[in-house]
Design brief:
mainly alpha; two-stranded parallel ribbon; disordered C terminus
């Protein structure tokens, strides 16, 4: 069994996590990834670095504006007056707003609420590069599964994918 691993993914290590109204340390820490990697190493699994992610392939799964938000959002956030260290939403569109044709905001405050599921989804400047490497890993795993299915004569099936904060293209 192969394990696809890229150290760049450890750079996404937010501090902030909101749980039941309390600020807590985020669960997505490098030590968690280290523990998983150590377990894979102890099991003598083949650990390989995935190839670079194809941005055209990412655009088949995510809208360009969502990818742009992940890439540029932390910079726009840092330009706010007195921002927090991490990009965290404090507003989200309600189901009623969405039902009445809500649109993506032109402001970073509105975009954070549009694209993130809740206040437990902080972003940092390291999130986008880490996410791209994770996408490369997932794409490689998907291709391996497809090749395995083909060699075994199994029927092909497209994978489904969804993001809570990705609400579709802008009108």
């Amino acid at each position: 069994m192969k394990v696809f691993w890229d150290p760049a993914q450890q750079a996404h290590a937010p501090e902030f996590f909101l749980q039941k109204g309390k600020v807590r340390k985020n669960f997505e820490v490098a030590a968690r990834a280290d523990a998983l990697l150590e377990a894979c190493t102890a099991m003598k699994l083949d650990i390989v670095n995935p190839p670079d992610a194809d941005l055209l392939a990412l655009r088949q799964v995510h809208t360009p504006d969502y990818l742009g938000f992940l890439r540029d959002g932390p910079t726009a956030w840092a330009a706010l007056a007195d921002p927090g260290d991490e990009v965290v939403a404090n507003i989200h569109p309600t189901p009623e707003m969405l039902a009445n044709g809500a649109r993506r905001s032109g402001t970073i405050i509105g975009q954070v609420g549009w694209y993130t599921a809740d206040a437990a989804c902080p972003l940092t400047a390291d999130t986008f590069p880490a996410a791209v490497r994770a996408a490369a890993r997932m794409a490689r795993q998907g291709w391996r599964r497809l090749e395995t299915a083909r060699t075994r004569g199994a029927p092909e099936r497209e994978a489904s994918h969804g993001m809570a904060g990705q609400r579709g293209p802008d009108p």
